[in-house]
Design brief:
Biased composition (Basic residues) (chains A, B): 192-203
Number of helices of chain A: 6
Order of helices and strands of chain A: HHHHEEHH
CATH architecture of the domain at 36-163 in chain A: Orthogonal Bundle
CATH topology of the domain at 36-163 in chain A: Arc Repressor Mutant, subunit A
Distance between the termini of chain A: 35 Å
GO molecular function, one term (chains A, B): DNA-binding transcription factor activity
Structural class of chain A: mainly alpha
Region (Disordered) (chains A, B): 1-27, 181-203
Radius of gyration of chain A: 22 Å
Strand content of chain A: under 5%
Oligomer: homodimer
Protein name (chains A, B): MarR family transcriptional regulator
Number of strands of chain A: 2
CATH class of the domain at 36-163 in chain A: Mainly Alpha
Domain HTH marR-type (chains A, B): 27-159
CATH superfamily of the domain at 36-163 in chain A: Winged helix-like DNA-binding domain superfamily/Winged helix DNA-binding domain
Largest sheet of chain A: 2 strands, antiparallel
DNA sequence: CGGCATCGTTTGACGAACAAACTAGTTTTG
DNA sequence: CAAAACTAGTTTGTTCGTCAAACGATGCCG
């Protein structure tokens, strides 16, 4: 292609913020920078995690669920910036894949607490390495210590934003925590209705 | 609400990466962090720039166009991660608002070069302050020097990504650059057809 | 002059996000 | 204790943005 378009001249510097430090008022690119980095992250991650039910989303959920106390779906949705309604079928698929389980909180039976299964933790461990590797690639333009620094600052900023979130509540209690898993696999819900799996062969 | 839900207990640490440095494998939150920050940025920006034709997008375009040589639409779209087809009506609206102008490159009449009008530059100057102020708010969780550092690193990462972009090519020449603006306001194109302003009353 | 490539525009379709209605369960109030 | 009010989760429908393909116009090259 362009086998005969030998044009050595290039756009000099129209890029929003190329040549940092050169133009004084050009450091208003935060949105652009984040969008570029995040998009690349997303691209690579989706192809790297294509075997997880919902790609990078599934990973986020799995990672958010695996460590401490099983959070409620609402709490999960809020942290991960995912709509409640989306969270529903996202968890449907993760559960179908045997990665997480929904258990009814005995203290408040409206609430489903999401916890990772053994298999889920195993998968997470494997996938996490892939994620780390991919992230390194995305930030390949930075040297190692700067990468680390960037991650750290981004995280601090994000945590601060989430904590200062308007609707974010002070009430997401754990009660006493289930302890044993003798709650039955929900049983409720899922009473028929079309599967909104999307993704599959549509039309 | 919850006027009487005095539950001091909180989720200890389910957040993907709260308490940084505590758990070794938890620094895989880059995607989450960026998503949170970017979303907040977007929210605030859209409300702060509601008077620009396409909000933060319009700002990006205006800012990318104002400094150096007028880029082609394709180059703009590539830099700003906007689809060609979207760029079309985005520029339609910016032009309608008198902020930019499309001029046919005399050297290659297929190409439209986008440049800011006088009014566009004025508006940009005003808006830029608003943007900076809003960004400070978004990064309020960081102290001032860290904010600056974060911006700087993010930009470096983004620039590196864009330069290493796969499809990004070495051919986006400027030729000799127009020089004078005696090209007439395109005239071509826009030959009837529905306005895809969307947005309006659909069905 | 005839094929091939590129830029910009238009059109169409698909998927994700958002909002609203509904059920089940819990808490509050008269 | 019963009714009202509220929350968690699911379901449904609508809307919006993004992406892919087709088209007209222009330029390049043999």
């Amino acid at each position: 292609m362009a086998s005969t378009t030998p044009e050595p001249a290039r756009l000099p510097d129209t890029r929003p913020g190329a040549d940092p430090g050169a133009d004084p008022g050009a450091d208003t690119n935060l949105g652009w920078s984040l969008a570029v980095v995040l998009r690349r992250w997303h691209e690579r991650m989706e192809s790297a995690l294509s075997d997880l039910p919902h790609g990078s989303r599934g990973y986020h959920v799995l990672a958010a669920v695996s460590p401490g106390e099983p959070p409620t779906q609402a709490a999960l949705a809020e942290r991960l910036l995912i709509d409640r309604s989306v969270m529903t079928y996202l968890l449907d698929d993760l559960e179908k894949a045997g990665l997480v389980r929904r258990r009814i909180d005995p203290g408040d039976r409206r609430v489903r607490r999401v916890c990772a299964t053994e298999h889920g933790r195993e998968v997470l461990a494997v996938v996490r390495e892939r994620v780390e590797h991919t992230e390194e690639q995305v930030l390949a333009g930075l040297d190692a210590p700067t990468r680390e620094l960037f991650r750290h600052i981004a995280q601090r900023a994000a945590v601060a934003i989430q904590e200062a979130s308007p609707a974010t509540d002070p009430c997401a209690a754990v009660r006493q925590v289930v302890g044993d898993g003798a709650e039955g696999p929900v049983g409720t819900a899922n009473r028929g209705g079309r599967r909104r799996t999307g993704r599959g062969t549509r039309n």
